[in-house]
Amino acid sequence: MDAILKRHSVRSYSKESIDGATIEKIVHAGMAAPSAMGSKPWHFIVISERDKMSAITKIHPYSQMLLEAQCAILVCGDISAEILTDYFQQNCAAATENILIAATSFGIGSVWVGLYPNEKYRRDFKKLFNLPDNIEPISLVPLGYPSHAMQPSNRFDSSRVHANNW
Ligand SMILES: Cc1cc2nc3c(=O)[nH]c(=O)nc-3n(C[C@H](O)[C@H](O)[C@H](O)COP(=O)(O)O)c2cc1C
Question: Rounded to two decimals, what is the model's pTM?
Answer without folding.
Answer: 0.98
